[in-house]
Design brief:
By secondary structure, the chain is an alpha+beta fold. It folds into three domains: 159 residues; 70 residues, Signal transduction histidine kinase, dimerisation/phosphotransfer (DHp) domain (Helix Hairpins); 148 residues, 2-Layer Sandwich (Heat Shock Protein 90).
């Protein structure tokens, strides 16, 4: 239980940390993408306005101190405009009013010929729209003076490479941080759950000590009741005393077994045995109580299925589930017992029983200690409310998974899956 609690603490903490890291990395990369996109758009507008106002692009300027490096007509900071101009890889195609090309400038991008540039520009004009993407290019189409049309294609491979470098770097840093936080949380979890673990350990010790202390008075009450019956004969009061003493003795015995299993002092001794034969024998042992309630039994137990587990504990596990099914099946109801083995899969035991009404709690709640569907706790079924809790402990001790589910309208199915 302590290890399970520690695992839950680590999982919960790491889910929160993972969400925070993903949120931060997502925000950083989203902001980087927006900034890159805005920078590309500003550069496209600058180049388009320049080509539209100048009629053609001038040769690469050589800036001089305190002089205008390029005759931009737009009102931007000239140094910023100059840097954007000389660092960009682009080509420009200008069309007249009749879609005839006026000029094509590919001097800033040597991987594209004039014919290729003209074909790309014509294609994006046919698409319509003012801006978009074409391969590694981002383009902008703008109408300028004298009803001409300017198309500017900007090579954004450098910006894309920058974005992916930031993304991979941030992902690497985030992954490393996640690993460090995992190690920190694992170390911290032992300290965080220590008070809870100590409290659970004290409760287990209390149950063990109280159980041993109660056994002696119960034995004395039982023996004194039998002695009184020797002198005075049996009567309804002595019978009630013996019944309730036997019931309390059984409860103490089960509580002590459950406490020892929680403490890990009861270890499974696995071996290979036929689960088919064990299941059949267990069903035969409960044939009388099944007949007493007029319950219809449907069994499907193939022969020759073996598992590797503790035979005694597996027998006790099956007996608990069968006893629970019989107790809570309505008179004249139905119980289905099935054994399944899938290729390369677990061996599965299924026990399904009908009932008067389904419990109004989640199925997993049925495995809680002292949970009773009878909220008045009138003990009509004769159970203690810890049988399914013991079944779960027995399953976990044998590396098996036990679960419950409701089948509408009035059936409960318990499943035990034994690992290979």
């Amino acid at each position: 239980m302590i290890k399970s609690l520690q695992r839950r603490f680590v999982v919960a903490a790491m889910i929160a940390i993972t969400g925070l890291i993903l949120l931060l990395l997502g925000a950083i990369n989203a902001a980087n993408l927006v900034l890159i996109s805005q920078r590309i758009d500003r550069t496209l507008n600058l180049l388009c306005d320049t080509a539209g106002d100048a009629g053609s692009l001038p040769p690469m300027p050589k800036p001089e101190p305190d002089s205008s490096p390029f005759p931009f007509s737009v009102h931007h900071d000239r140094k910023v405009d100059h840097n954007a101009f000389i660092s960009s890889n682009f080509f420009v195609v200008r069309f007249g009013a009749d879609r005839e090309p006026i000029f094509v400038d590919v001097s800033r991008l040597y991987t594209i010929s004039e014919n290729e540039a003209l074909e790309l520009a014509s294609e994006v004009l046919d698409r319509g729209g003012g801006r978009g993407e074409y391969g590694r290019f981002r383009y902008l189409i703008k109408d300028v003076q004298m009803r001409d049309t300017v198309t500017v294609f900007l090579d954004t491979s450098g910006e894309s490479g920058s974005f992916w470098r930031v993304l991979l770097l941030s992902a690497g840093i985030g992954l490393a941080g996640w690993g460090l936080m995992l190690a920190f949380v694992v170390l911290l979890s032992k300290r965080a759950i220590r008070p809870i673990a100590e409290n659970i350990q004290r409760q287990k010790q209390f149950v063990t000590n109280a159980g041993h202390e109660i056994k002696t008075p119960l034995a004395i009450i039982q023996s004194n009741t039998e002695a009184m019956e020797l002198y005075n004969g049996e009567n309804k009061w002595s019978r009630n005393i013996k019944e309730q003493t036997a019931r309390l003795s059984g409860l103490v015995k089960d509580l002590l077994l459950l406490a020892r299993m929680d403490e890990g002092t009861v270890q499974a001794e696995p071996s290979d045995f036929s689960i088919s034969e064990l299941f059949e024998d267990s069903l035969d042992g409960f044939s009388q109580p099944i007949d007493d309630k007029s319950v219809r039994l449907n069994s499907n137990i193939p022969g020759g299925i073996t598992i590797h587990a503790d035979r005694k504990q597996t027998c006790q596990l099956i007996s608990i589930l069968l006893d629970n099914a019989i107790k809570y099946t309505n008179d004249g109801g139905e119980i289905t017992a099935a054994l399944e083995e899938k290729a390369e899969g677990p061996v599965t035991i299924r026990l399904q029983n009908t009932c008067t009404a389904l419990p109004d709690v989640p199925p997993d709640k049925l495995f809680d200690r002292f949970y009773r569907a009878d909220t008045a706790r009138t003990q009509k079924s004769g159970g203690y409310g810890i049988g399914l809790a013991m079944a779960r402990s027995l399953a976990e001790a044998n590396r098996a998974a036990i679960s419950a589910k409701y089948i509408m309208p009035n059936a409960v199915c318990f499943t035990v899956k034994f690992r290979l």
